[in-house]
């Protein structure tokens, strides 16, 4: 069981008690008992084919059928029902948190009342979502409730109705100095300057506040402030976040800048979501000579590259690859659906109507791009932004640089020949030609006699391009000796001897390599430095022609694949049961992610709009209308103002999904 669920179980126990405070209330299996058994008992008694003691507790009729000890319930007789007595006496569940007093009492009352169901049960308990689960507030269609009267501002109207119901009213109206501070901090994250405060206080026109907001929304600081909130949700980081090797994420900043730019430009959020989930499917490959808007779409998919990924740092195995997929699904589901889908990776969600098959159907949407079958390490997923003109420029520069390399190599060969001849002068005359021949013979073709000869004369054998600089000192010593000798000869005015000395000095000076070769190497390096730097995008794309099959993993273990699944949205919100529509096989991508993005933003999905608007409210006021922005499920908080949330969401979507207007 995931940590989040463990932490929230006491809350659920309290809710169970509060929902049934009176003995007279009718208790049904679907609404009251099944959620308790699902949280505590399904994993041993029914799920994944496991039925310890032969008992499956997922349906009333299966409880009546019982296991090896007989029926689990006797309707009307709680004391004669094994389900109740085993739980009451603490014998069940084994090795799990015991049921609360309120939960045990609910089961007792259900049995005593006749162990009724609200409606006929399905033939099979597999992948069953009850009507009660479907009626949960977060899965209901988004409504556009009428705005209450009493105030001109719709938001104030909804808030005032709630306040009045509690015998309260609004706080005193804030002064202008307070307003400008609140608005400036809220929209830009910065305090207003003294000059801005003075100007606002002096402006007594009715439009002063609207003009203030327009100015703040137009500030580049707005995108930086509000982009940070979304980057936090996306898990933005400049390194891979892997424990063993936290490698730098090259070019990740492009996604950061895309987010800031999108918010400053007031990009509609339905488009913002589509580009982040499937920008690559909106651009036709090959990704070359891209226009700015195409670059933006590809850059946006960096959203799907924010999960910790150590596969480029020595951890490229199936476990690590599947972990990247799991973390990506977590980011997508919490940020855009407000659901803890990850809790269904190993089994049906214990509290929300999210089936284990739902998890893998959702995974199937991302499998073509992120599945281990087509795995690519972070570095190999980058998309180059080089144009054909850039490549031609680099190629032309490289041609010139190689010409300089060739000139330098010619000089190296000349220096080696000079050094060889100088070394041979020091050898007996009868050995000079054999040594010269042995040195110039390729190492692989030397005879045994040549190898032995060179071994006996290491000063010749060791001459190489890498050792040329070592001879500069010897040559300088020779030049110094010759200069001293020349000085003596100059006093004697021996012109013939001086001429010979000068020729030797010229020879040794011409053999000095370091300055010459260094200068030539620098010239080639400087030429290559003129090449334009190749920029990249950290993006997510699919590999052409390879669509892997997605399997449900037994208890989340990637080494135990079971039934194959097709891509689909969560069953509880996909009432039509239609899978995600795919592109034709001849298309460059499956279109799965784009189909999901369109479904999430078509205005009928019950989660995405609410989740986004709730996050906007949270970052303006410190608390969301739903206090658990990443969990709209049963373990999350219910909305404090459900009608206001729906009205804002409906208004947001109806008016183009534009945040600045909201």
Report the count of strand segments.
4
Provide the β-strand percentage band. under 5%
Shape: elongated
Output the structural class. Answer: mainly alpha
- The percentage helix is 40-55%
Compute the number of structural domains. 4
Low-confidence stretches: 3-22
Q: What spatial order of strands do you see in the largest sheet?
A: 1-2
Number of helices: 26
Distance between the termini: 39 Å
Main sheet makeup: 2 strands, antiparallel
How confident overall, as mean pLDDT?
A: 89
Radius of gyration: 38 Å
Q: What attributes does this structure have?
A:
disordered N terminus; 26 helices; mainly alpha; 2% strand; 662 residues; two-stranded antiparallel sheet
């Amino acid at each position: 069981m995931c940590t989040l669920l463990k932490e929230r179980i006491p809350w659920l126990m309290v809710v169970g008690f509060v929902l049934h405070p009176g003995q007279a209330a009718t208790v049904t299996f679907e609404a009251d008992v099944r959620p308790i058994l699902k949280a505590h008992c399904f994993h041993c008694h029914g799920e994944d084919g496991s039925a310890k003691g032969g008992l499956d507790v997922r349906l009333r009729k299966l409880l009546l059928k019982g296991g090896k000890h007989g029926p689990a319930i006797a309707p009307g007789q709680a004391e004669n029902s094994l389900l109740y007595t085993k739980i009451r006496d603490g014998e069940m569940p084994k090795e799990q948190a015991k049921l609360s007093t309120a939960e045990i009492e609910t089961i007792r009352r259900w049995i005593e009342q006749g162990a009724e169901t609200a409606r006929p049960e399905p033939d099979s308990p597999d992948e069953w979502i009850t009507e009660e689960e479907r009626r949960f507030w977060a899965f209901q269609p988004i409504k556009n409730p009428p705005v209450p009267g009493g105030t001109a501002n719709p938001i104030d109207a909804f808030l005032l109705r709630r306040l009045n119901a509690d015998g309260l009213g609004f706080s005193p109206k804030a002064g202008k100095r307070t307003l400008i501070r609140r608005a400036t901090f809220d929209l830009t994250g910065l305090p207003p300057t003294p000059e801005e405060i003075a100007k606002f206080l002096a402006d007594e026109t009715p439009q002063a506040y609207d003009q203030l907001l327009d100015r703040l929304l137009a500030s580049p600081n707005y995108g930086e402030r509000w982009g940070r909130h979304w980057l936090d949700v996306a898990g933005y980081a400049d390194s891979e976040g892997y424990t063993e090797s936290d490698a730098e994420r090259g070019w990740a900043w492009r996604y950061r800048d895309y987010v800031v730019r999108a918010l400053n430009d007031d990009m509609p959020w339905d488009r913002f979501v589509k580009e982040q989930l499937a920008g690559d499917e909106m651009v036709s490959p090959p990704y070359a000579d891209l226009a700015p808007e195409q670059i933006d779409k590809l850059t946006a998919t960096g959203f799907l590259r924010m999960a910790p990924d150590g596969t480029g740092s020595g951890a490229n195995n199936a476990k690590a690859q599947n972990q990247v997929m799991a973390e990506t699904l977590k980011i997508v589901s919490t940020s855009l659906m407000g659901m803890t889908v990850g809790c269904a990776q190993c089994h049906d969600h214990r509290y929300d109507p999210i089936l284990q098959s739902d998890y893998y159907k959702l995974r199937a949407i991302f499998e073509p791009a992120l599945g281990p079958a087509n795995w690519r390490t972070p570095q190999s997923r980058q998309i180059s932004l080089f144009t054909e003109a850039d490549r031609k420029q680099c190629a032309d520069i490289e041609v010139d640089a190689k010409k300089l390399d060739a000139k330098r190599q010619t000089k190296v060969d000349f220096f080696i020949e000079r050094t060889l001849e100088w070394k041979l002068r020091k050898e007996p005359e009868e050995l000079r030609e054999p040594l010269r021949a042995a040195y110039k013979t390729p190492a692989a073709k030397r005879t045994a006699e040549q190898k032995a000869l060179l071994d006996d004369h290491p000063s010749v054998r060791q001459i190489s391009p890498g050792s040329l600089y070592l001879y500069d000192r010897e040559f300088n010593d020779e030049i110094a000796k010759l200069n001293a000798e020349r000085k003596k000869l100059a006093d004697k005015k021996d012109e013939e001897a001086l001429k010979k000395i000068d020729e030797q000095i010229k020879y040794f000076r011409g053999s000095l390599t370091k300055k010459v070769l260094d200068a030539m190497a620098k010239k080639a390096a400087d030429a290559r430095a003129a090449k334009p730097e190749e920029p990249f995008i950290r993006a997510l794309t699919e590999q052409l022609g390879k669509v892997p099959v997605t399997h449900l993993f037994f208890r989340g273990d990637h080494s135990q694949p079971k039934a194959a699944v097709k891509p689909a949205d969560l069953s509880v919100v996909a009432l039509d049961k239609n899978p995600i529509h795919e592109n034709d096989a001849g298309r460059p991508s499956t279109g799965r992610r784009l189909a999901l993005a369109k479904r999430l933003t078509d205005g009928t999905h019950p989660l995405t709009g609410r989740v986004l608007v709730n996050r906007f409210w949270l970052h303006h006021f410190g608390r969301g209308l739903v206090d658990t922005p990443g969990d709209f499920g049963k373990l999350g908080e219910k909305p404090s103002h459900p009608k206001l949330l729906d009205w804002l969401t409906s208004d947001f979507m109806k008016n183009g999904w534009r945040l600045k207007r909201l």
